[in-house]
Design a protein that fits this description.
This protein is mainly α and 332 residues long. It has one domain. Helix content is 63%, strand content 0%. α2 crosses α10, α10 crosses α11 and α12 packs antiparallel against α13. The protein is globular. Keywords: Membrane, Transferase, Transmembrane, Transmembrane helix.
Length: 332
């Protein structure tokens, strides 16, 4: 489907292939980034890791915010929140704790302190709950940025992924504020060219600065004090990373195909790839694959984990049917 420069009266929905294409391409970055993480002693791997981490999760969060604009505190929405985020979070918290029991004889489970990649489910749960609040504020993005910057000045507890939840909040709020016409603007031909140039410049910048910027900055999980900088410096760095992330997200969306592609259908199942690819990463870490092979494995794994057979096999964990756990909805 080709989207014209001007927006028609039809609203953009979650099944618009543009968004599914963006999510599929984004999950490739996530999986490949995790697979090269253990190879960061190689300069190229470290630069690629740094580059991808500046914007790959911000991209998912912006899309999540945009697609959460209609969230309300209705019974139906609450049930969906439980079945698509809360229950999968509990399942995968346990699932990712089991390998530690098998390999090291330790079973550590803290449901309020997310392990590995499950933090995103917990943060998204909290962000989505806050949606009606942000929609009532006059300057929601400015407030979210201030909260994000203030987070760096405090050693927040690890429970509920508090540091990441607040630090990355501006991207969710940005998504809530976006409208169909903003995406239509990004799809214009000259923006596509600008997007490619911006992504290229971003990669060049990452190659130049990746050795000077500690990796923890792009993980958003530590306060300024733990990164050994004062609050003024930390605030400047965090603001710079927020701006860089937003610019690269816009550039990435500008080059994302708007028409239906062979991978559009896979983009509707990226949560499967996100939650399951960690097991692939844990196995791959035991082998010295090298950067090119790791990237090839990442593309293959991310694609495979979004396919219908995998969805049927793991539907019970990623999208469990929870109607049995809820009381019947009351008709108005």
């Amino acid at each position: 489907m080709t989207v014209p420069a001007t927006v028609d009266s039809r609203s953009v929905t979650a099944r618009d292939p543009f968004f599914d294409n963006a999510k599929y391409l984004a999950i490739l970055l996530v999986v490949c980034g995790h697979l090269i993480e253990d190879q960061r002693d190689h300069p190229i791997a470290h630069a690629l890791y740094f580059y991808v981490y500046v914007f790959h999760m911000p991209l998912f969060i912006v899309l999540s915010g945009y697609l959460s604009r209609r969230f309300t505190f209705s019974a139906g929405k609450a049930r969906k929140l439980i079945s698509t985020l809360a229950v999968p979070y509990l399942i995968f918290e346990v699932a990712y704790s089991l390998p530690r029991l098998i390999l090291y004889g330790k079973f550590e489970l803290s449901l309020l302190d997310p392990y590995y990649l499950t933090w995103f489910l917990l943060s998204l749960f909290l962000w989505r709950l806050s949606t009606p609040v942000w929609q009532q504020l006059r300057w929601p993005l400015a407030i979210a940025v201030v909260l994000s910057l203030l987070t760096g000045m405090s050693a927040l507890p690890g429970e509920l992924a508090m540091n990441r939840t607040f630090a990355l909040l501006p991207f969710y709020v940005l998504g809530l504020m976006l409208k169909p016409e903003h995406f239509a603007w990004l799809r214009r031909p000259y923006m596509r060219l600008a997007g490619f140039l911006t992504l290229g410049l971003g990669l060049a910048a990452a190659l130049l600065v990746h050795e000077q910027v500690p990796t923890e900055w792009i993980r958003w999980r530590l306060p300024n004090s733990a990164l050994h900088v004062d609050d003024l410096t930390g605030t400047a760095v965090r603001l710079g990373l927020l701006l860089a992330g937003a610019v690269l997200v816009a550039a990435f969306l500008a080059v994302t195909p708007a028409r239906h592609t062979w991978f559009s259908g896979l983009g509707s199942a990226t949560m499967y790839a996100y939650l399951l690819h960690g097991f692939v990463v844990k196995v791959a870490e035991r082998f010295e694959l090298g950067v090119p092979l790791s990237i090839l494995l990442g593309v293959a794994a991310a694609t495979l984990l979004c396919t219908p057979p995998v969805r049927r096999l793991f539907h019970w964990a990623v999208e469990p049917r929870m109607s049995w756990a809820f009381t019947p909805l009351r008709r108005p």
